[in-house]
Amino acid sequence: MADQLLPVLLCALLVSCVLADLEKDDSPKNVYNEMMFKHAIGKSAHFIMFFAPWCGHCKKLTPVWDELADRYNPDESVPATFAKVDCTAETKVCHENEVKGYPTLKFFNPGHETVKYTGSRNFGSLEKFMFERLDKKKENVPQPPEAKHGLYELTEDNFKSHVAKGNHFVEFYAPWCGHCKKLAPVWEQLAEGFSHNEDITISKIDCTAHRPVCVEHQVNGFPTLKFFKDGMVVDTYKKDRNHQSLKEYVSSMMGPPSTQTPPLKEVKKEEKKVEEKTEEAAADTEPKESKVVVLTEDNFQEGVSKGLTLVKFFAPWCGHCKKLAPAFEDLAHKIDDKPGLTAAKVDCTVHKSTCNKYEVRGYPTMLLFKGGQYVEKYSSGRTLDDMYSFMLRKLKELQKEEL
Question: Which pLDDT tens digit goes with each residue over 332-379?
Fold first, then answer.
């Protein structure tokens, strides 16, 4: 009897193991096929990771993405879903969404433009981005761009409103473009130079992420540089792309826009007036270029190595920093002709290690350096006269020491 029961028991055990294996889900989590993808993004907000199973960066991101999905997908108070699309299986979906590398992360919102994510791939950054996009959806108002070192990054949402009034020099670029990469540091330097001039903005827009804007303005190559006045393109820049040439071009384009075409005789009169214009008058109309030295983690020690340097440690979002900026800029201009005195600044949101090194705990913080060494913290008034008097006093002390 026992011999007869043994095969039956073994068979039951085998069936149980097979069923357990079938119930076990080793497949990737939250992966959409074509039908699921099209249905989902048309109904609610979705943050999609387009990936390839063999991609190393995708494998590294997957645990973070799954953690976000586990945290927020079941949460009905958060109207967004984290999901994935395997581009080796769903080639059509990835092609239609212009996926050219892995992983590609895009945020879909019904009735809003699709936004490509290009930030850090950690839990906090991805989470913050999701909530920012959801807040924008609730407000239903295009968000104005924020300048980073004077450079504005534009999008399809805010492009028209940004260039609607005033003067704007815009770079239309593509991240993969070699000429764009070469221009990037020059463009950033140009933006920094005009960062305190309220009559002009220096901007850029990624044509791979915001294609409709670039198509509208007939951008056929990268980089394309266009000058806007009151929402209209008035010129396309085609000269040398070095800093001096670009700076001179911006200065030449800063005149008030003409509202109507004057008669030929009036044109000749105006040309004569321009010819008679003195160099002094021309200098009055030239935009004021920044004299504040921009320090980074790489050049900080070199930047404070000579003479006396007053360094402003700041954060772009800080209200007190924004209030101080014009006076600090004026200080830089006023001490520009005095050898041994320098005004410099460090963005602590970018160069955290430098700010941590000098124990910067609030913004703005101003520290004085002499010959590369920290001397003291500036704690007097923040007017131009206060800071200028302080610098002159310290310069006299330095000159006495050198005698």
Answer: 999 888 888 999 999 988 888 889 888 888 888 999 999 999 989 998
Instruction: With beta carbons less than 8 A apart as the criterion, state whether 340 and 395 touch.
Output: yes
- CB atoms under 10 Å from CB of 49, counted, come to 27
Q: Which of 87, 94, 321, 348 is catalytic?
A: 321
pLDDT of residue 1: 53
Q: Which of 180, 207, 214, 355 is an active site residue?
A: 180
- pLDDT value of residue 280: 43
Helix or strand run (H / E) with residue 294? strand 293-294
Contacts of 143 (CB under 8 A, 6+ apart): 136, 157, 158
**Catalytic residue flag (residue 348):** no
User: Residue for token digits 């954060």?
Assistant: 315
**Side chain identity at 255, as an amino acid letter?**
G
Residue 207 annotated to the active site: no
Half-sphere exposure of 350 (CA within 13 A, CB side): 14
Selection from 200, 99, 202 nearest residue 147 by Cα: 202
pLDDT, tens digit (0-9, with 9 covering 90-100), for 223-238: 999 999 988 899 999 9
Structure tokens at 68: 């976000």
What's 31's DSSP letter?
B
318 among known catalytic residues: yes
How long, in residues, is the chain? 403
Degrees to nearest 5, angle at CA 345 with 343 and 349: 175
Least confident piece of the model among 20-29, 35-44, 194-203, 205-214: 20-29
DSSP at 332: H
Residue 177 catalytic?
yes
Residues 6+ apart with CB under 8 A from 76: none
User: Virtual CA dihedral for 167, 173, 215, 234, nearest 10 degrees?
Assistant: 30
End-to-end alpha carbon distance in the chain: 114
